[in-house]
Amino acid sequence: MPVRKMKVEVFDGSGNRYTVTFEGQVTREKALRLLDLIELLGGMPGVNPELESASSESSKFERVRLIVQRRFPIAWFSSKDVQSMYEQEFKEPIPLSTVSTYLSRMADRGLLKKGGMSNRRHYKALTGTSQSAFTVVKGNK
Fold first, then answer.
1. Which of 89, 38, 39 is nearest to 65 (CA)?
2. 113 in helix, strand or coil?
3. Model confidence band, residue 8 (pLDDT cutoffs 50, 70, 90)
């Protein structure tokens, strides 16, 4: 069941505080729009440059990690979701089995939380909120 209320506080580099409260059905799409707004306000420094600097010299594992960090910081996602974003960002194919292996390794290292059965596995970043400059203050289910 989606969260009914979520409050997010963002502090920018100048010390300004922005507070956004969602009430009602909070979907993944709405949460991602909020992250885009936070980025525009300068509340997530270093996210875009990091992704843009991931050149062809970066390992595929590192690029998958960056996709997860950038595109799925607070939402559940599947290997197929990451594969799609990877191919969109880096304009090159990556096998679904490779993405699944990398996500499983990230979960084993404590970077991701694993859910679902093996044929319908989904993941959620455990450190996404601590790596950015925002904090979720309250979320009621």
1. 89
2. strand
3. confident
Q: Exposed/middle/buried for 35, CB within 10 Å: 0-12, 13-18, 19+?
A: buried
Can you say how many angstroms the Cα of residue 67 is from the centroid of all Cα atoms in its chain?
7
Instruction: For residue 84, count other CB atoms closer than 10 A to its CB.
Output: 17
Spatial distance between the Cα atoms of 17 and 3, rounded to a whole number of angstroms: 23
Joined together, the tokens standing for residue 2 give 């989606």
Is the pTM for the entire model greater than 0.70? no
Token pair listed for 86: 């990877």
Supply φ then ψ for residue 65, to 5 degrees: -60, -40
Q: Are strands 112-115 and 3-11 parallel, antiparallel or unpaired?
A: unpaired
Mean pLDDT of the chain: 74
Sequence spans of domains, the chain? 3-140
- The fraction of the chain above a pLDDT of 90, given in percent, is 29
* Secondary structure element (H or E) that encloses residue 58, with its range: none
- Asked if the model's pLDDT at residue 4 lies above 80, the reply is no
CATH of domain 3-140: 1.10.10.10
